[in-house]
Every structure is written in structure tokens, then in C-alpha cells.
Amino acid sequence: MKILILGGDGYLGWPTAMYLAHKGHEVTVLDNLMKRRWEAIAGVTPLQHLPPYQDRVRLWNGHHADNAIDCRICDIAYNKRYFDEIFETFLPDSVVHYAEQPSAPFSHLSAAAGVETQQNNLLGTLNLLYTVMRHNPECHIVKLGTMGEYGTPNIDIEEGWLDVEHNGRRDRVLFPKRPGSIYHLSKVHDSANLEFAARVWKLRVTDLNQGIVYGTDTDETWLHPELYTSFHYDAIFGTVINRFIAQAAKDRPLTVYGSGGQIRGFLNIVDTLRCIELAVEHPADRGEFRVFNQFTEEFSIQELALRISKLFGARIEHLPNPRVESEDHHYKAKHTALPELGLEPNFLTDEVLGEMHKFVYKHRKNIDETVFKPDVLWRT
Amino acid sequence: MKILILGGDGYLGWPTAMYLAHKGHEVTVLDNLMKRRWEAIAGVTPLQHLPPYQDRVRLWNGHHADNAIDCRICDIAYNKRYFDEIFETFLPDSVVHYAEQPSAPFSHLSAAAGVETQQNNLLGTLNLLYTVMRHNPECHIVKLGTMGEYGTPNIDIEEGWLDVEHNGRRDRVLFPKRPGSIYHLSKVHDSANLEFAARVWKLRVTDLNQGIVYGTDTDETWLHPELYTSFHYDAIFGTVINRFIAQAAKDRPLTVYGSGGQIRGFLNIVDTLRCIELAVEHPADRGEFRVFNQFTEEFSIQELALRISKLFGARIEHLPNPRVESEDHHYKAKHTALPELGLEPNFLTDEVLGEMHKFVYKHRKNIDETVFKPDVLWRT
Description:
The structure is a homodimer of 380-residue chains.
Chain A (H helix, E strand, L loop, with lengths): L1 E5 L6 H10 L3 E6 L2 H9 L10 H11 L5 E5 L6 H11 L3 E4 L6 H4 L3 H25 L4 E7 L14 E6 L2 E6 L7 H20 L2 E7 L1 E3 L25 H10 L4 E4 L5 E6 H13 L7 E6 L2 E4 H12 L3 E4 L17 H5 L8 H13 L18
Parallel strand pairs in A: 1-2, 1-4, 2-3, 4-5, 5-8, 8-12, 9-11, 10-14
Antiparallel strand pairs in A: 6-7, 11-13
């Protein structure tokens, strides 16, 4: 299958590219490399120095000539003509779209960062829809959304759609969203545009509302010492488990925001890759807007802190919550569609945490302790 | 009260500015004049030649020195610094935000027009939120949305919010949207951003989901022969009743899309002004996202065509529907909030239609018959 991966330089995009190429798919990756600038703006770096995008692809292709990846630098939000050309030439069966500013705290860094987040994410996705409609409406769009689009409603969360009864009448509606940040809003806007593209333009769309991803390695990152992915442990781009592990490895307290009663869905990075593969292998129908909630387990932040604290002897520090979010709420979210397609979850075992800790500990000299602190406030 | 009106050169913005100035409010209008370019792109002009923005304000100020309007040219999506400066200097109590690309067909003219619609509308509104938060979070934002955000769900439409019960639990959620165009989507995105700004940043927001406006004149446009507003009768910018009246005045058939069974909410342009006044005089609370459905009557398109046909002897022509929309659907939408605040509707009487027809008939030599035809297809 021909698969175009947007955002191929990222934490998830890069391992996804190697994984799908390794499985025998014909893969083209595309990135605008803007994330590297956003990291610079936030003043943070990944745990390991990240070689240039082109070098990583060259390294992969050197070892895997039969599963070579084609690599392009293109901004889907602004280089429309070049993007059209790449798409039209490659004519992918599926597009996997990770090419978005991925951080809620980054989107609250400044007005400029908030506007850039929505502009980049919305325009990129919208251009993708026009490009697919123009050059190959059969192409399946697999879009990475987030569980954070739903927020924490007081009702059970379904997979994208909700059957409602109101004044004795019924309808099936998009699940109402209550996103918690300017970044999460950008994904809500994307979802609305995607649903329209399926309903009115008859495109094939799978929206993956992903939980919080953790992990350092996948089957392919192990294949060569320099194929690792971009692992962030800072308060801007580092997801919570990754950050806790880095704090533990550095003998620093695990920074819990508020009480830590916030419950979220989580998944292992290797499950992300498998979910993408399952979505790609089972495309949505023409005109279908299909939503999968992509996570395997739910934990409260405090629960995670306690486990990691116990395992590695780290202290827990409760900080005033920089975000505006509920710390005591109902959380029951359906996530059966991907297991039904064949996902076999890799759960967050002590062994998994141990492996992560071992990896991060090995690189602990690279950790800058000053970036653990959450400096970005939702309300100023 | 100090009121900043965004989009002061438009069909509704201009009469709103005169109306509120006439009532004794201190009014600043702002416009980027982009609508004049969009008209040029669509190849259409209003019924009467529209004098330059600055000339209209000068004319008003010449006759109404005590109720003078301050006039600025600024693009809120891109001239952020100048917009901040205008806002900070004037420090309005309310901002009335009309400054958006206002046409669904325009947003489907091309990929470029669709992207520009969402970019302009979303970025302008988002910048407004940051400006208000920075310079005066007490300022009340009155934003023009549209009933088209809801689409035509199979359940009754409430005013912005819906009480849902699901699996035995309850919540009050944003009313689920099913917008019918790229333009309508832009307003849905705006509403999501506005709700966030109220919930998280504690701004005061009123989102007015307006029906389809009709009418040529208001109390102030009569005050001088050149204070008229921009009246469109074409298939891109002309709303349906205005277009039917122009078709009747030109002895052309009334162009109904499909069966005409589509039901929509409507209101007279003079009621728009009164609704804005009521919203401004009764501001939302800090942290409140208040939604009013702003229309006074519901009609099907066929019903309107029959009435106008009967009154003025015009023929009805059913065209293949260029849009993707249901022509046979449930439609019951609540609209009690504005009457409760004091709105006394001006209904679509035969007299009102007669006055409109008289006005348009007087200018019928200006009517270009070729722009009645709906050339823009939703699905190509």
C-alpha cells in the first residue's frame, strides 16, 4: 500500500514511517521541520540530539534498501502547490496526518503561539482535504486527533458520535466537545472540517482521538543506534509519563499539577503504530467519518506518580495547576473499535516502566532540570 | 456606551453603526474592506454603487456631528498591532463582531476561497479574544454567528446549549453542530473558540446565531439618499428573500434550489439592529458564553417563493440544488431569549415585501441578471 505520512520528523511520525516501511508498505514522509523551531522557541531539546531529518531517512535507507522511505520537506499549510505535486505524483492510498503543532502548553505560551497553533493545524488539514478531493477522493485520510477534544464531560464518552433523544425525537450527532486548550480546540476544528469532508465531499476519513502516548522505543528504533525518536521530557512537549520517568531518572520530584485527580487515557508508543496500521488496513468507506478512541488504559495522574515514585524512589511534588481543568471528574470513555480490528494492547507494566527508566537513565546527563517546571499558565 | 463595530462597511455593520451612534452610543467602526475585493472576485456588485467607506462615515458625521462615528481601516486577522492600538485607545465596553467572510457559496468558489474564509474568520476572532483578554477582559464580545451552524438536526434546536442524558448521567453541552458549508464551519470554529474564552479566560461572550436577514432599509439609511447599505441580490452574497425580490423586480423567475422544502429562520434587517442593541445593553456575565438564536420567523424556501410569486407575478423555477443539503427535514428552533430581552419582531408582511420591491424596482436598471444563476457547486 502507498502511504504518505505527514509530520515524519516527529515523536510518532518517524517511528510510524519506519514501522510501515518495514512492513513492506511504500512510504513517503513529509515534514515542514517547524517542530524544531517550536522547540527552540520553547527553549527545550529532546533527550538525545536529533540528527537532521534527511540524515535519519538516509540512515534507514542505507540499512533497508528494500524498504526505503522517500523524504520530502514541505509545509502543507503554505506550500500548497508543492504538496499537490507530491500527492499527485505519489498518489497514496492512505495519508497519515500527524503534521500539527502537538502541545497544549505551547499553544498557551503567547498569543502568537496560540494563533500559530490554530493557523498551522487548521490550514494544513483543510489543504489536505482539498488536495485529496482534487487528486484522489478514494484516498483514506487517517488523522491524529486527541482524547482531549472531548474534555471531561459528566457523561460517558463514546467514539466520536452520540445517539441523543431530545423532546421525544432522536438523532446521531457528533459527540459534543469541551476541549481544554487552544491546541485541543485546533483538533476540534479539524474534526469538524473532516466530518464535513466525509459527509459532503464523500471522502474517507478516520479520526483517531489518541490518548497520551508514552515510551521511548519501537521495534525499528532498536535497529540502529541512531534511529531513535524525539523523546521530550520537558513541561511543554513532554507527555506526563515520559516526564515523570525523566524526573525519576534525574532524582527530581515528580511534578503533579494540582491534586492529580485528573484521569486520562494512555497508550504505549508501539500501540500507536499498530493502531495506525489497523486504520490504514481497514479504510473508512467513501463518505464515512469514522472516529476511534485510541488508548488502552486509564489512569489518574496521581496514580501514575505513585507508581513511578514507588518503583524508582522519586518524591512527588504537587504544584499549583497551571492549567484550567477539573481535578475531580467522571471519566469513562469507550475504546473498543481498535481492539475489535485486532489491537492487542501493550499495557503499562512495571517492566515497561523499568525499560523506559533504564533508557532515560542512560542519557540522564542530557537532562536539563530547569525545563521540568510548568511555566505556561492557562489563565494569566 | 463605547461600542467598537468590526466589519463596519458591510450590509449589517454599516446600518448597525449608524443605529447605535444615533442612539447616543460612542461608536468606532473598523473594516479591512476585503468584502469589496471578494465581491470583485465573485464578479458581482451591490444594487447601488457603494461609496467609499470613509465617504459614508464622513457623510454621516456631516449630518450628525453629535453622533459622529470614528472610522478605521484595519484587518483584525493580520494587523494585530494596529488593532491592539485601536482597542487600547478606545477601550470599548462592547465589541460587535461582523468582520467575517459572510457567504457560503463564496467559500465553495475554490479551494483558495474556502481556505481564505476559514483563515480570515478564525484568525480575526481569535485575535479579538487575545486583544480583549490583554486590554480589557470586562469588554463584552457580541459575535455574529449563524443558525446554519446547527444545520438541520432531527431534534429540536436549543439556544446554543443542550441538556443531555446518556447512560443514566447528565450534562449540559454545547449544542452539536452539523454545518452545511466551509463558511458555516468557520463560524462553528469561532463558537468553539469563544466558548473556551468564556470558560477558561472568563471573558463575556454573546454568540448570536442569526437567521437569514432580509431588507433594504433601516431608520438611519433613510436619513440621507446616500446612507443606504450594501444590498446584494446575486447567488453568492444575496440572501434568498433579497434575491427573490430582485428577480421579481426584473421579471425573472425566482430560482428555488431543489424542491424548496428547506426551512430556515429569517429576520428583518431592522430586527438585527435591535437584537444587537439588546445584547449590548444586557451584557453576558464574566465567564458566560451566551447563545441567542436571532431570527423571528421560519419559512420554507418554496413558501417564500410562492408568496413573492403571488405578490409580484413572478414565475418560479426549480433548479438542481447546487448545495448539499436536506430538502425535507425537521426544523424547530428555539428563539425566545431575544424576545424576553425586549425584541418586538417586525414580521415579513406583504407590506414589508411591497416596500422592498418598490425600492429594488426603482433601481432595477442596475440589476445584472446573469448573477442570479447559482454557479457554485458544493460537490464538484
